[in-house]
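Lay summary. Proteins are chains of building blocks that fold into shapes, and those shapes determine what they do. In this project we predict the shape from the chain. Here is one chain we studied, written as its sequence of building blocks.
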Amino acid sequence: MSAEKIDEIRAQIALLRNQLTTLQKVLPTEKVENYQFNTITGAVSLADLFNDKDTLFVIHNMGTSCPYCTLWGDGFNGVLCHLQNRASVVICSPDSPEAQETFRASRQWNFTMVSTEDSSFSEEMGYQNDNGFLPGVSAFKKQGDDIHRVANTAFGPGDDFCAVWHLLDMLPEGAAGWQPKFSYEQDSA
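And here is the predicted shape, written in a compact code that computers can read:
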């Protein structure tokens, strides 16, 4: 394998990403109901989460039991101010608002968090099934009083939403079985 072949594959990936973006823009949107959520400060609606924006990202997080979801959350927290300049951003999980607040503070996350524990939102958005909750992201657009989901995708190891995997891929051994943890303090150097 040569460096030229790697550059060629990267160019193909960039072309495919542009094609994917173009296709996403022409897909029909999905009108959704104005779901209700619980937060540490009380109930809010999906419409409330838009704040002063007409677009919203909802990060579907499996909650405090998932180190992978924590890895994604940590990464999004680092770019949150950039994302919020364009759209509102919230994390939803099945955890109680109190558990979310404790976890959010322990991770120093700056996200608005909403609980889906008493809501059909995760299931109806495709991020909960008989095996439990699933990670991903949904993008919404508010048009008057209507809310439309305009895009969504699942998260998984190696996806485009976590730079850690792509950096590890550059190592000769790749990830070499590495998995995210809540804390690495116990690891030796």
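What the prediction tells us: The longest helix spans residues 3-26.
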